[in-house]
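Page 37, continued from 36.
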């Protein structure tokens, strides 16, 4: 198996099949890709748009081609010399009746062979949040009925479109006294969970009799009007129905984040690991898969043990990457046997090059003057408080109960209220996603982190001492197992709580500079600088040279080129704030007065203008009605999601329809062709940002393709990607147009048209990937050296070298150049760079600019006017 020099992420489903992917192989090979990086391909719930709701991990999704289709794609990739990286999901499966494991648990409860496969608290019946009101109200209103499920071979409780299998032990309750059904009753009475396949086969045989089935259904129809009988029958099941609105407080299975339709797997169990990885391991053993991307590693009980077991199963030469969000200077645990992360921290590192630090602060002050919160940490604290008190209140309460039970067993005298407050404050002040304690206790790094959190939390000293004992495992021998349960529950809660608080709440409440509201990034970062960028890259080269370097994914809040454009607003804070005020006044007639305030609010308006600016196609003109309509449709979906994720005046469980309708109406009015005065003003104001943002796009592209790490290209992002958050970022690219563009001879020249349509970016991608393939070791294990930039424009360029033996690549990119570009063309005039040079490594011979075929003679420094003579970026190679 080969180490990728690049990956290309494809989102299967939504029309993308194995057959269609196989047809793209020649294009990917020409582009320079070495490995296709596939979204989950295993059988998922019907109609799944993403594949993370798996129902069978040992079956490939039929809708995208099944096993035969997969073999077709695999063979086509191998014939072209390309590899394959698969995205797998060990943390959860769909809590769906289409999932045979989950269905078994629903039917048989704790007796099911799969009862311990899922992370369920079996101290009570399995909770199913499938109704919109209390069960007695639902029965009273006739929302439930008994039915025959011939296909499944069982009797079922039909509620809200779900045919929930009755536990066979309860069949007697509905068949009693009916001589016609004695055979069915007897079959059910002899049924055991361990023999469930045989039971269902016998039932299907009996129900094949049409007459018997009709008679049985008539009998069940008669019983379905008896509310008392249905209530009694409900109480005899292995499951209990609860209102979906109460799931946050009543659910008794671990879910993925807040999604009740995804149930946590106990993959730490050897049997669960084996049964959920059988096909994956077979595909690796047969050489059809070269690498794995592990989804949501933080959800697992013991990530280290899982990764060790997986690494032992797949061998040392298979690429192993984890989806892990690193906060600040956090690093992956060094003992993890992985090649790195999927690269969100790389996005955060890039922002150091393109965010003007003083301008960002000025933007924050302007945002605060218009009603926003300047301090992002306060916004995050409020979001975390909401998550603790509402969205994750069930998980938090369970943690309280366990801590208090252990305190009583340990004879700890700390007041229960202090223990609860200490746990709450620890979760509130936790600065990263989680710690990685094991059954044996905490790592030294986790202890150091927790001590800092203890100090910041301000919690009662005795309560902190007690909680620390649980986390460290310093308890009586008889309590060690329950202390380990507390430790892993705390860790498994901290991650989702941070994710939902930060990524899916605070990022939608704090709209100061949307470009830094990105997965893996920190809007509260204290400084943005090239020095910080270089430190990150030097560490990456030494520790994680095979981590992915990504700029767009299926989970990013916006496409890489939208982000590159929005960075430029940090360079024009005052002008942007003035423009927002002007546009707000122009569009004031479209604002609606509601009882709970104006809609949209001032901070909503600030956010909307940025969102429009980031997504605005470079070629869209203010008089293009069809183009404006298409943009508006995309932004309407984004706006609805943003308002609900912010969880302020609307949310997913309590939709404020009047507020959402008013904001959407405002957006539609903004982008109406009749609003030409605003559109013309907006268009003219945006033009310099479009051009300088495109330069940022080229700069971040050459950095990604040459810096330490494996560059990952999200589908279509080899051209421009101005997408919004999902589902917008999961639209299929125009591959015919991309192939046509790539097929043109040579690299598009130094022209505004080439820059703005994305062809120049695509050409740069192809040339840099070719360089990486030709010189694998240089970019795989080569050193990283920050190169000084000296002269009056030194703050407006970044440079570094990659070195391996006698080979060297020198990369130079502009930064913070908004407002300095000429009226046409894409390069700053030579006079601008006068006196500014990059100091080159000692002993270099002649260099060739691989982007424009120019030769650079040996020298100790390179003038930027020379480096940027043809293109606004430079990649030089010498051997």
């Amino acid at each position: 198996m080969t180490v990728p020099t690049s990956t290309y992420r494809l989102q299967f489903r939504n029309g993308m099949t194995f057959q269609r992917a196989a047809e793209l192989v020649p294009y990917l090979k020409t582009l320079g890709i070495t490995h296709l990086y596939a979204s989950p391909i295993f059988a998922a719930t019907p109609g799944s748009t993403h594949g993370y709701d798996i129902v069978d991990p040992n079956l490939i999704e039929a809708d995208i081609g099944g096993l035969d289709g997969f073999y077709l794609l695999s063979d086509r990739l191998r014939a072209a010399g390309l590899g394959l990286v698969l995205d797998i999901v060990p943390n959860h499966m769909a809590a769906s009746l289409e999932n045979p494991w989950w269905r078994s648990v629903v039917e048989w409860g704790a007796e099911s062979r799969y009862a311990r496969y899922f992370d369920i608290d079996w101290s009570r019946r399995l909770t199913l949040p499938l109704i919109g009101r209390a069960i007695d109200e639902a029965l009273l209103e006739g929302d439930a009925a008994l039915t025959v499920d011939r296909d499944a071979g069982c009797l079922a409780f039909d509620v809200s479109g779900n045919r929930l299998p009755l536990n066979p032990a309860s069949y007697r309750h509905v068949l009693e006294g009916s001589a016609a059904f004695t055979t069915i009753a007897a079959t059910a009475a002899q049924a055991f969970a361990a023999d469930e396949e045989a039971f269902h086969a016998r039932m299907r045989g009996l129900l094949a009799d049409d007459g018997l089935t009709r008679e049985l259904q008539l009998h069940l129809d008669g019983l379905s009007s008896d509310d008392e009988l249905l209530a009694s029958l409900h109480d005899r099941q292995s499951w209990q129905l609860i209102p979906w609105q109460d799931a946050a407080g009543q659910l008794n299975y671990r879910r993925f984040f807040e999604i009740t339709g995804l149930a946590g797997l106990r993959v730490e169990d050897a049997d669960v690991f084996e049964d959920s990885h059988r096909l994956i391991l077979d595909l690796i053993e047969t050489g059809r898969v070269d690498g794995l991307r592990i989804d949501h590693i933080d959800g697992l009980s013991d990530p280290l043990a899982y990764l060790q077991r997986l690494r032992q199963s797949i061998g040392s030469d298979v690429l192993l990457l984890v989806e892990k969000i690193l906060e600040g200077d956090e690093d992956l645990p060094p003992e993890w046997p992985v090649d790195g992360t999927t690269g969100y921290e790389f996005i955060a590192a890039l922002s150091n090059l393109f965010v003007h630090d003083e301008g960002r602060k000025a933007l924050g002050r302007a945002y605060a003057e218009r009603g926003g919160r300047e301090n992002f940490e306060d916004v995050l604290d409020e979001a975390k408080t909401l998550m603790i008190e509402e969205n994750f209140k069930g998980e938090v309460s369970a943690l309280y109960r366990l801590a208090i039970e252990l305190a009583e067993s340990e004879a700890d005298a700390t007041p229960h209220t202090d223990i609860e407050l200490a746990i709450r404050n620890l979760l509130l002040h936790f600065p990263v996603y989680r710690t990685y304690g094991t059954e044996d206790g905490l790592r030294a790094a986790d202890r150091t982190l927790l001590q800092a959190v203890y100090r910041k939390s301000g919690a009662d000293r005795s309560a902190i001492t007690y909680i620390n004992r649980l986390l460290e495992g310093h308890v009586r021998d008889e309590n060690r197992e329950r202390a380990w349960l507390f430790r892993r529950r705390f860790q498994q809660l901290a991650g989702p709580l941070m994710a939902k608080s930060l990524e899916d709440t605070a990022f939608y409440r704090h709209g100061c500079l949307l470009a830094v509201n990105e997965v893996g990034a920190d809007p509260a970062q204290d400084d943005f600088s090239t020095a910080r960028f270089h430190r990150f890259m030097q560490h990456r080269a030494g520790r994680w040279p095979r981590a992915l370097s990504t700029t767009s994914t299926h989970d990013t809040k916006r496409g890489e080129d939208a982000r590159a454009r929005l960075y430029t607003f940090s360079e024009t804070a005052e002008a942007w704030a003035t423009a927002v005020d002007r546009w707000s006044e122009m569009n004031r007639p479209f604002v609606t007065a509601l009882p709970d305030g104006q809609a949209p609010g001032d901070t909503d308006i600030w956010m909307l203008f940025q969102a429009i600016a980031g997504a605005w196609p470079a070629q869209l003109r203010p008089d293009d009605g069809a183009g404006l309509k298409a943009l508006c449709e995309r932004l309407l979906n984004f706006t609805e999601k943003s308002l609900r994720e912010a969880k302020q005046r609307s949310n997913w469980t309590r939709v404020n329809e009047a507020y959402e309708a008013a904001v959407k109406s405002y957006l539609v009015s903004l982008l109406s062709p009749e609003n030409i005065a605003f559109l013309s003003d907006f268009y003219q104001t945006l033009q310099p940002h479009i051009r300088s943002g495109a330069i940022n796009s080229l700069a971040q592209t050459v950095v990604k393709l040459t810096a330490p790490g494996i560059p990952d290209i999200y589908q279509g992002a080899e051209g421009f990607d101005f997408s919004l958050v999902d589902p917008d970022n999961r639209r299929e690219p125009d591959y015919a147009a991309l192939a046509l563009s790539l097929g043109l001879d040579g690299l598009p020249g130094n022209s505004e048209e080439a820059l703005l349509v994305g062809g120049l970016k695509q050409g740069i991608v192809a040339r840099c990937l070719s360089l990486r393939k030709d010189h694998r070791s240089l970019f795989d294990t080569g050193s990283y050296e920050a190169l000084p930039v000296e002269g009056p424009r030194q703050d407006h360029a970044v440079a570094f070298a990659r070195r391996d033996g006698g080979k060297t690549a020198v990369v130079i990119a502009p930064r913070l150049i908004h407002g300095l570009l000429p009226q046409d063309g894409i390069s700053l005039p030579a006079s601008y760079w006068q006196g500014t040079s990059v100091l080159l490594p000692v002993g270099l011979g002649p260099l060739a600019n691989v982007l424009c075929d120019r030769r650079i003679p040996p020298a100790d420094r390179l003038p930027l006017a020379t480096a940027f003579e043809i293109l606004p970026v430079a990649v030089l190679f010498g051997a």
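The mean pLDDT is 96. Flag for discussion at group meeting. Residues 581-687 form one domain.
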